[in-house]
Write a structure and sequence with these properties.
heterodimer, A: alpha/beta, FAD/NAD(P)-binding domain, Enolase-like, domain 1, 3 domains, 5-stranded parallel beta sheet, 26 strands, B: mainly alpha, Alpha-Beta Plaits, disordered C terminus
Chain lengths: 455, 394
């Protein structure tokens, strides 16, 4: 049996591991344009700052491909011939035949819709190649102070629209490192790009279109705390700024961001306005793509419109609990979908069932945990909010619908989301939850428990 | 064209801990600081440390060769009795300086703050003040913070006969009863990360290099082999010396082989002191901090760590993993000074106890998603069993 997996991110690798665990002799090929080794995309920011090395963010030892018998194909897939069961590769390489195929090509950063978005010195912070570019602009090279750039970072055959292509560096052209970075887009990738610029000793500008930072997850009170921390660390937070264009000098290097509020100088711009399924390379293949967003349409068991072809991770458009169809762009869902896809590749017929929603993040130095339905504007929903300001600082928000707790939004402290989810499933009341809240605490030892006063 | 990275010493550093935060406060710049990554400067520091230990342990050889005993001469010139007092003083200074370095980075978390403070306080009080003070009262240099088998000569019958009765009792009860019982209740961390001087130096002075400990499977295999080998040798040596004490006077050849007639003789006792006490604990264990990380001795050679590790496996201590929340970033594994690939357990949702874990708490501290928690609990004994982890075990 020949298994081919396009993409060696978490979805592809989880599927490959699941197959290998049961079938030691099947031929498994992993095609990747981005890198030779599976790495944790969520950890790019720490490589930038120097907190971790490239090797450190790889969950498997480097001999894993050999040890597990995975064939590594470092190439750009260009098309799938579903009739002949072949994956074509760029650069004149032989096509790869498959018996069962998994598309796990992930996301690509959404390009800026504004004039000047393609200027030199403008980029993203999603792929390994983005990391290399951003490091070049800000640090003049990768971490390990002055070490050579990551040798496997770029592939010569990458097309000009590939998220994994080599990007020219404005700092090199100018002969001067970036001094005034600007980050556009108030989400998780945006705040990461901001935070690493702070670590490099810079004062980045952070342009956010919305009224407050990250409105899909935080309410104004919660967001205010994050904004305070950003300002405290030397970030210029610009809320309610609609970007209009990016200006460049005669040499093509970016010089400024122009918004509805004015002109702001910038010599390095990171556009972080979201990601979209990395599926444009499938345009000529007989595989159904979602009209609205471009994800690979899959059924509840992650099968695509073509026989023996499955999709998992950020590139797959799945049915959500509310009936809509869109991709789930989270590490956790990519991992879970990869595991389900692995069983599909083995010939099982499992269903992918998204459990209760949960997520976590670290916003500057504040840890964030959420579980259940928090920002869904449910009928008759109410929020119970508590702000702790003692030796520990935290906020606790419990969302209640018809006397039943349906969601939690927690900042500052550590919580076991699996306990919170159990309470939601048990349809606990607010009073009950507040009385038992510390049973879900996951704080480190010696941290005093949360005391809710006046509740 | 390179930006010189502002040292995290100045930047993130314990700047203002107006509130307790559990996780790492701000990003670290570890890999952008060459001296922490085996640069020429880092290797030079290592060379200096090795040189220092070689001179410290074999000063008589240095004197034979060059006609000077630099450390003794310096010690006497500043009024210290011998070079070991100078060593004790430098050790304390290095620990205090390292503790400041560590707390500026990681002191926002209570566990780190309490642990380092207690460890340094114990070293200064028990490790180095007592030996200075006791000779004034005609006593011997006794370290209350060390036990057998780490302090291998504390259970030699001759030692027990020589020291005051209270200390003999302390060391026997401490080594054979108190240390194991505490390890059952709290894991080996009560000793390795809160009390021990070797661990204390590693966690303070050695902290800048903690990411250098190898996480490879090979290094894990080596550790399992080497640490148990040293433990066997330690037990064997103690046994033979006990036997020698009983029958040595009737068997002069046996006595000569085991203990030697003169301290300069090569014997099993002096070989153990040379190979384990000087080479492994001193020269390699501390001298190579900037190359192999700060826990080379504790991880690969310390016989006490081997014993406590076994006990830890059946005791209450474990690292609890919050299910499904790991993003496999690798901060935990990177900053594990014992070379445990914590991530492999976290991403498999597997709470665990590893024999080598010294409970420094840095994995939980570095985790950006709060996935890990150190705890003592009898719940879920199945966590103690070796689970099959796909990424580790295939």
């Amino acid at each position: 049996m020949r298994i081919v997996i396009i993409g060696n991110g978490v979805a592809g690798m989880e599927a490959a591991l699941a197959v290998r665990e049961r079938e030691p002799s099947w031929e498994i090929s992993l095609i990747s344009e981005e890198s030779d080794h599976f790495f944790s995309r969520t950890a790019l920011m720490w490589v930038f700052s120097g907190q971790m090395s490239h090797r450190d963010i790889e969950p498997l030892e480097r001999d894993a491909y050999t040890r597990l018998g995975f064939r590594r194909v470092r190439a750009r897939a260009t098309c799938i011939d579903t009739a002949k069961r072949l994956v074509s590769l760029a650069g004149g390489l032989d096509p790869v035949p498959y018996d069962r195929l998994l598309i796990a090509s992930g996301s690509r950063p959404r390009s800026g819709p504004w004039p000047g978005s393609d200027a030199r010195g403008v980029g993203h912070f999603v792929t390994l190649q983005d990391l290399a570019w951003y490091e070049d602009e800000v640090h003049g090279g990768s971490s390990r102070a002055g070490g050579p750039p990551r040798p496997d970072a770029h592939l010569p055959v990458s097309a000009s629209d590939s998220p994994y292509r080599f990007r020219e560096v404005a700092a090199e052209r100018r002969g001067r490192l970036a001094r005034q970075p600007a980050i556009i887009g108030g989400g998780l990738i945006g705040i990461e790009a901001v935070e690493v610029a702070v670590t490099a000793g810079l004062r980045p500008r952070f342009f956010i279109r919305e009224e407050w930072f990250w409105p899909i997850a935080l309410d104004p009170r919660e967001s205010q705390w994050i904004a305070d921390r950003m300002s405290h660390h030397g970030v210029d937070v610009h809320l309610e700024h609609e970007v209009e264009m990016l200006e460049a000098d005669s040499d093509g290097n970016v010089t400024a961001v122009r918004t509805n509020e004015g002109r702001y100088e910038a010599d390095c711009v990171v556009i972080a306005i979201g990601v979209m399924p990395n599926t444009s390379w499938l345009a000529g293949s007989a595989i159904e793509l979602d009209e609205r967003g471009g994800g690979v349409v899959v059924d509840e068991s992650l099968k695509t419109s073509a026989a023996d072809v499955f999709a998992a991770g950020d590139c797959a458009s799945v049915r959500w609990f509310d009936g809509t169809r869109r991709p789930e762009q989270l590490w956790y869902t990519a991992r879970d979908q990869g595991r389900v896809a692995g069983r599909r590749l083995l010939g099982d017929s499992p269903r992918y069932e998204r459990g209760a929603w949960y997520n976590s993040a670290k916003l500057m130095d504040i840890e964030y945990t959420t579980a259940g339905l928090v920002n869904w504007n449910l009928d008759g929903e109410k929020s119970w909010f508590f702000e702790e300001r003692g030796t520990v600082r935290s906020t606790t928000r419990v969302v209640v619908q018809q006397d039943r707790v349906v969601g939690f939004n927690m900042l500052g402290r550590r919580w076991d989301h699996s306990v919170l989810i159990r309470w939601i499933e048990e349809q606990r009341s607010l009073d009950w939850v507040l009385a038992h809240l510390n049973d879900a605490a996951f704080d480190t030892e010696l941290v005093p428990p949360l005391r809710i006063s006046g509740a | 064209m390179q930006r010189s990275t502002p040292s995290s010493f100045r930047r993130y550093a314990f700047r203002e801990h107006e509130v307790d935060q559990q996780g790492q406060n701000g990003l670290l710049t570890t890999y952008r600081e060459g001296w922490r990554n085996r640069s020429i400067l880092g290797l030079t520091i290592s060379l200096l440390l090795v040189t220092f230990y070689v001179v410290l342990y074999w000063e008589h050889k240095v004197q034979e060769q060059f006609g000077v005993a630099p450390l003794t001469a310096f010690s006497e010139s500043v009024g210290l009795r011998n070079r070991w007092y100078l060593y004790g003083f430098l050790y304390s200074v290095a620990m205090i300086a390292g503790a400041i370095y560590y707390l500026r980075r990681h002191g926002n978390s209570r566990y780190n703050r309490y642990r380092i403070t207690v460890n340094v306080a114990i070293q200064i009080a028990l490790g180095f003040t007592l030996p200075f003070v006791m000779p004034l009262f005609g006593g011997k240099e006794l370290y209350f913070s060390y036990f057998w088998p780490l302090k291998y000569d504390y259970l030699y019958p001759q030692t027990l006969a020589d020291v005051p009765l209270y200390f003999a009792l302390y060391t026997v009860v401490g080594s054979l009863l108190a240390a194991p019982v505490l390890a059952v209740l709290y894991g080996k961390r009560w000793y390795c990360s809160w009390v021990c001087g070797c661990g204390g130096l590693a966690n303070t002075f050695g902290d800048p290099w903690r990411h250098l400990t190898s996480k490879s499977t090979k290094s894990w295999r080596f550790e399992q082999l080497s640490i148990h080998l040293v433990l066997l040798i330690a037990i064997g040596t103690t046994f033979l010396i006990g036997l020698d004490w009983l029958i040595g006077s009737e068997h002069p050849t046996f006595h000569r082989i085991v203990s030697g007639n003169d301290w300069k003789d090569w014997s099993i006792k002096s070989f153990y002191g040379f190979a384990v006490g000087s080479i492994l604990a001193g020269v390699i264990g501390t001298g190579l901090y900037p190359i192999f990380g700060p826990r080379v001795w504790c991880r690969n050679f310390c016989p006490m760590a081997a014993v406590l590790g076994w006990i830890q496996k059946v005791g209450r201590y474990r690292i609890k993993v919050k299910p499904g929340m790991c993003i496999s970033c690798g901060n935990c594994s990177t900053y594990c000074e014992m070379g445990i690939d914590v991530r492999s357990y976290a991403q498999a949702d597997q709470s665990f106890t590893r024999a080598s874990c010294v409970g420094c708490g840095m994995c939980a501290h570095m985790c950006p998603r709060g996935v890990l928690k150190l705890e003592n609990s009898w719940d879920r004994p199945e966590d103690k069993e070796r689970q099959r982890l796909s990424v580790v075990d295939f």
